[in-house]
Structures are given as structure tokens and as C-alpha cells.
Amino acid sequence: MQQKVIEIIAEIKEDPGLLQTLNGASDLTLDAALDSLQIINFILRIEDEFDIEVDFDTFDLEHLKSVDRFSAYVAGLAVR
Amino acid sequence: MKNAVHCGSLESERYWREEDLATLPSIPDARALAIVQAMDEMLFVFCRSGDILLTRHGMDPAQYDYLQSLNYSFKTNMNPLTLGVRESGTTQNALNVFELLGRLDPGQETERLIPEGSVLEPFAVLPGTQEAVRRYKLLPGLPDEQTVSKVNTKTYSAAMRDRLSLPNIAQIVHSVEELLQSGQELLEKGPFLIKDEYGVSGKGNQLVDSDRMLSRIAGYLESSRNKDKRIRFVLEPLLNRETDFSSQFHIDSEGQISILSVQQLVNHGFAFGESHSPGPPLLVRLEREGYWEIMHNIGRELYADGYYGDVCVDSMLLRDGSLAPLVEINARKSMSLIKHNVDRHLKQEGMHTCLIQVPLATMGEVRYEELLQRLEQAGILFSPEEGEGVIPLSSGTLQPPDPSRSAGSTGSAKGKLYAALAYRNEDRKDGLTRKLDESLLRTGYTILR
Questions:
Q1: Cross-strand bridge partners of residue B193
Q2: pTM, rounded to two decimals
């Protein structure tokens, strides 16, 4: 899942170089530099890819502290 | 001439928004808001000698001294505008600067700074502006708050295109059913935008490029968050833009319209990236297409509706060669007007200027004064003698107070540097940008590009 998350970030940022520079520890707002609009589009793309639904009202920016943390959050939604 | 008091909240759209309007998906970001709230420092560019600038957090003394050295002679508050211990940080952050001024305890620094009978020069008229005018005995002469709120909506801009017989691609939807129906029709031709009534660049505009995305947004609008709220959005096919630009004009209280400038924008996605003066080809094109007459007509209609003051109209040149003169009306000051006023102050022949923003992060406490020193050591800090270099426009945006962090805690914090670059040619501009990046990194900032 980690690789797919990174691929979607690179797609949203339109920066293929991120495929090499990002890893599980990368912060989505600091290292990947997703801005507020890109975060929404990123989450909508993730929903599509993993067939989940994120609750925007309770979503915490802490989930974006690393690719691994975000992947774990998505995995948690997928098994519900 | 009477002195003016300059202040404002640059996230004006947040305060105009009616609470009962449904919202598009978004994630509250207190850190991003803290940066925008600190942008009010940039209003120094509008100050004439002896004017007063009030900022939410107070300016770093090093920045104040630097601006004085550039012959900006204004007075400002050095301490934050705070309501005291009885009010929480959350309450305070929810207030715009005028609401904040209206609720300050008597006897504070602001009262000593503001001479009675000064003219208020707000970034935008917001709820609470008229009350601040009364409390501090400032001169009236501002349009009423409801009018300003109305003329800043996307539906007002769309209706203005019809009033002026301009091509109008906007559709207004008032229900989820209308959104689904109109959205599906638009999708057959290509991606489209859902625009919030008070959306701003980077926020409040949702690009829809698939049926699944459309039904997800529709589902969100029917969720508990939006239950019982009014649906009102503007749908527009995504324009294939070649160039973004905007024009700035002023409508005085008698209805006289003065065109001030046109600024070209380099946006990153939908967000502000850089603004610079357009070259002659764009200006010739605008003249030929009667663009200035359209701006005057917009000004006349705004005045007829009760608005006067500053206006920034967003426009586009499209890849098919056509001109979209009215994308959006912003009845307030703007980043482009800030850029125009920097140009007015510098007034140097043969010099180019642009306004940039650099997104940053810091891992601990960083001293703004040190950044100024490094820029000076690198030989790129603008001075009137050199006439070329970097002018940092705000100190507080680099490391704004983060309400989500307790005092004294460390960890990453986001910020932004807003700066004007004055340069003789593109090579010099590249050199300034490279040395600016190096100075930021050496001072302890991480650049988030």
C-alpha cells in the first residue's frame, strides 16, 4: 500500500521525482508538500483506489505525519 | 491630509461566508490559518508617512527597522492584539481583526496609536468593521458590510457577466439533484469546477473529473455536516488557461473609477505562486479587446449596487486565443495591489519586480533577525542604494504562532516567506532566488517546494 500511496502523491504533485525521494517516513505536508487543495484531491483519489470513505469531519492532520501512518489509517478503514 | 489606519484580515472570505451554506470537503488546518493571519503585516505597503499599521501579532522589531530604512515611515503595534487570559486562543483565532479591535480592553497600545479622526483603510470591509470605526472614532466612508459580502460571491460575478453581456459559462445549482444533473452534462464535455460562493485560490474550488468524484461530492453534501444547510454553488467547465492575470482599480465615494494596474500571475495549480508586471503584448491585446472599458463597466455596476473602494478582477487568456475578462470579482485589496504598491514605492527605471512566496518549515525556534543578516551578508537584501535585491514583506508568516502547539514546545512548524524581488534581468532574478534559498536553509528553514 505504501508504494501506491507514494504513486498517488507523485501523481497529484505532478512530480515523478517523488517516487524516488519519498518513503514510509515521509511527512505528507512537509516532505511531499501537499497543500490544502491537494490533500483533498489526494484523499479522494485514495478513496477511489482502495474503495474506502474518509470522514472529512473527523479526519486528523496527524494521519499525514508519515506515509506509513497514513497507510495504516487507510488499512484500518478498509477492513471495516 | 489625515493619517490613515491600515489593518485587515487577508482571509476575508472566511468572514463573509454565511453560516448556513453547505461546504465542500475540506480539512481544517490551524497552521495554514496562522500563516494567513500573519499576512496582515504586508499592508505596510499602503502606508504613507505618519500612517498607522495595526497587525494581529505585532511586527518583528528587525523587520520594522528594515522597512524604516526603505523610507516606509509608519507607526505600528509591537505587541500582539490579545483579549487577555479570559478568552481562549480558539475564540481569538475565530475573530477577524476588526472584531478583535472591538473587544480589546480599554487603555491598550492600539488606543494610544490611533489618532481620533483618522481614516480607516481596511484590506476588506468585514463584519465588525463599522463597529471598530465607531469605537476608535475613525472617519466613516466605507460601504456597508452586507453589500461587500454580496458583491464578493461567485454568483454575483456570474450574474455580472450577464449584466454586461459577456460570455457566461457558469451554472448555479441550488440542490444536490441539480448538481448531479448539471454535473453529469458538464462531465460529458470534460472536467469542471464546483466553486464555493466564497472560495479562494487553493481552497473552495473542487475539480471534478469523473462520475465517481461527482457522486462522492454529492454524498458529502447530503452528509450530516451539510444537513439542513443551503446548497449554492457555481459550476463552470475547467477553462484551458494560457495566462492568469488580474486588474486592480479603485472606485471612490463619488463613483469615479481609477484603473491602477494589471498584474500577471503564475499560479501553482489553483494557488498563488508569483506575480509580475505583464509585458507589452498583453497590454496591447487588452487595449485592442476593449478590456479597460469592461473594467470600467464592472466598476460602474458595483457602484450602482452600493460598493466603492478597491477592486481586483481576475481574468484569463485561454489557449484557444480567447479572452475571459471576468473570471471573478474581488471587492477588496489584493496580493496584486500589494505588488503594485511595492512598484510605486520603488519607482526605478529599468528595474523589474515580482512578488514571490516560499513555503517553509522550521524544526525549532528560528530568529527572523538572523535571516535579514544572512540576506545582507549574501549581498541580496534590497537597499535603496543598491536598488536591486530581495525585500521580505512580512516577518510573522515565517513562523506564526501555532495554536495547536503548547508554548515552548518544539517540532516542525509551517510558514511562508512573502517577498518582492527587484532585478535588472532574468539572470539576476535567478541569482537572487538561488541565494535567497541558500540563506533560508542556512538560517534553519526547510523549503517546501
A1: B207, B236
A2: 0.92
